[in-house]
Specification:
single chain, mainly alpha, Cytochrome Bc1 Complex, Chain D, domain 2, 2 strands
Length: 129
């Protein structure tokens, strides 16, 4: 039996949200056999270093890749990889409230996330180099 797409997405988001833990920091441990070059620490958090592909914000941020490019490195719209997490979070919060028609798509996307999820997304993009 195939799981309907909205249900599968909801389950995936619930699992990702559960990974942030009570304090908001990702609870994923760093594998001891990873080389330092493959390890990144999200900015704006006290999270331990972890491989970028394990970052709990990556699955949430994947929705952004269509317009901002793979890993936010640029696409039809500006790249957002490497931007400060605090700045990205602030912009996402502003987009949630903007009535600007030019930003309607971004507003709808931003409104779909909780503050904790927006922080994970911002931390993920800030950690991409």
């Amino acid at each position: 039996m195939k799981v309907p797409q909205p249900v599968a997405l909801a389950l995936m988001l619930a699992a990702t949200t559960a990974a942030i833990g009570v304090g908001g920091a990702p609870s994923v441990a760093t594998a001891s056999d990873r080389s330092p070059s493959s390890v990144s620490t999200p900015t704006g958090t006290n999270a331990p270093a972890m491989p970028l592909y394990l970052h709990p914000g990556k699955i949430l941020a994947s929705n952004c890749f269509q317009c901002h490019g793979t890993d936010g490195k640029g696409g039809p719209f500006d790249g957002i990889a490497g931007e400060p997490a605090a700045e990205l979070f602030k912009e996402l919060k502003e987009l949630q409230a903007t009535p600007d028609v030019d930003e309607a798509i971004m507003r709808v996307h931003a409104q779909a996330y909780t503050d904790a999820q927006l922080r994970l997304i911002a931390d993920y993009f800030a950690s991409v180099r």
